[in-house]
Amino acid sequence: MKHCLVPVVLVLAARAAAQPAPAPDPAAPAAPQEAAPPPAEPAAPPPVEPARPPEPARPPEVTSKWSMTIYGFAEFDLMHDTTQSFSDSPGNGLIVRPTGLTYANGRTQTTARNSRLGVRMSAPEFEGMKASGNVEMDFMGYQPGIAPANPSVSEAAFFNNGTFRIRAAYAKVESEYVDLLAGQYYFLFGEQPFFFPLSIWFFGLPNQAFGRTQQLRLSHTFKSDAANVEIAVSAQRPPQRDSELPDFQGGLKVGVNSWKGVHAGGSGYAAFDPLTIAASGSVRHFRVNDFATAPTSLRTTNGWGISLDGMIPIIPARSAKDKGNALTLSGSFVMGSGIGDLIGGLTGGAAFPNVPTMTGALTGTYPANVDPGIIQYDTTGNLRAINWQNFMVGAQYFLPPTGRISIGANYTQGNSNNITDGLTATATGCAQCTLASVFKQSQFFEAVVIGDLTPAVRIGAAWQRIAQTRGDDAVSKNNRLELAVYFFF
Predict the structure, then answer these.
(1) Exposure winner among 237, 400, 459, 472, fewest CB in 10 A?
(2) Over 90: is that where the pLDDT of 35 sits?
(3) DSSP label at 29?
(4) What is the C-alpha separation between 244 and 247, in angstroms, rounded?
(5) Cα separation of 91 and 328, whole Å?
(6) pLDDT at 18 exceeding the cut of 90
(7) If you average pLDDT over every residue of the chain, what do you get?
(8) Spatial contact of 347 and 339, defined as CB atoms under 8 Å apart
(9) How far, in Å, are 19, 21, 25, 37 from residue 31 at the CA level?
(10) Is the pLDDT of residue 246 over 70?
(11) For residue 122, how many other CB atoms are within 10 A of its CB?
């Protein structure tokens, strides 16, 4: 039976598959149809990388940046002199002769003209060279004398309207092999300003090697653990432009690194340096008009100078901040001929004499082509360079425990053995040609104390004396009491 049913089932299934599908009912809702899949998106093209610009050339590697420091101080000075010889800054000026109204009476002055402003700059290091520059000014510029010498300038105008002037303006380049300095700076002669003493006097002290001028200097420092040795040479502004030759100077300075102390130059803060000794010198040339009212020829002579200097810490210090009980001595010895301008403009009062006329009277004007007091004619026409032999000693002690108060003492002396040559007691028609018109010896004493009221404000007080011996042996003295207040920034 089972075998008979199988063919029947297969026949029925075939017939059902061959019949058409029934028509849909119009009333019935249409069956939802499946949405056809969206066409495939075309493949995105591969991104195109923009072309890279060429890399710029790299600048040289910079190890530091430009820097600028503004520094200086505002200064007030109150001074009383026992004579009426000087303005605020005496320098090596003449004390009036020891007779008369101006010697018997004193004067009191105040000034702010020594206030100072400076800008120090440094450039990025380049190929092993460090470049820097410095411009420094104060208000002690040239001003004409005040009444009665110049009635057109009042005391108020002189002291209240100080003239701005250049103190320093130079460029410096330091390298492994040689250092270059070009511009206006201290003389190499005397290795300035390293050996300056503690003082509130307006530098330079009488008889002190001091000054600044334009120069081109080359130097190098050989450094070691035991000592630093610096050698330097410079060509400086000639003392006489008509000589056509610069003033050639050279110096050697040695510092012993195992022996250090503190020392202050002028009224500034103390520096921490090794015991140092130095030797320096100058060689110069002069060509001056012949001794006539209408010169037709030139006369020549030479000048020279040497300076030996030292800074010796008698009681050493551990640092510039730890300076209590430190004691330091400084000293200088200078000698030479025709070097008055290297000693703070020291002239001794010497000036070119008048020229004798046909009758022998000294009334003709000599047309000098060099500053006075460096070389000199006497009244008979003999030419000479003025000789000077000077020395300076100074001591400064920083009181314990902190060293905020320091006391100092300075003594200087200058002597000339030929400034009176050819001069006489009287010279008709030539007041500047007599023994009484010049000094052959000058001495300076100072006792000073300086203290820090705050880290920025310093106060100093001093007693100072100048004594001068004239060519006729008359001795003039001026005593000064000075109070100074500084704000450093």
Answers:
(1) 400
(2) no
(3) P
(4) 10
(5) 25
(6) no
(7) 89
(8) no
(9) 22, 15, 11, 18
(10) yes
(11) 17
420: left (phi over 0), alpha (psi -120 to 50) or beta: alpha
| Distance of alpha carbon 245 from alpha carbon 238, whole angstroms | 6
Non-local (6+) Cβ contacts of 137 within 8 A are: 116, 117, 118, 164, 165, 166, 167
At residue 364, the pLDDT reads 83
Q: What is the distance between the alpha carbons of residues 394 and 129, in angstroms, rounded to a whole number?
A: 37
Map tokens 């599908």 to a residue: 21
Beta-carbon contacts of 100 under 8 Å, excluding residues fewer than 6 positions away, are none
Residues 102, 51 contacting (CB under 8 angstroms): no
CB 88 within 8 A of CB 109: yes
| Tens-digit pLDDT profile for residues 268-320 | 999 999 999 999 999 999 999 999 999 999 999 999 999 999 999 999 998 88
Bond before 148 cis per omega within 30 degrees: yes
**Longest CA–CA separation in the chain, Å:** 185
pTM: 0.84
CB atoms within 10 A of CB 454: 8
**pLDDT of the residue at 16:** 41
- 477 sits in the region (left: phi over 0; alpha: psi -120 to 50; else beta) called beta
Residues found in the chain: 489
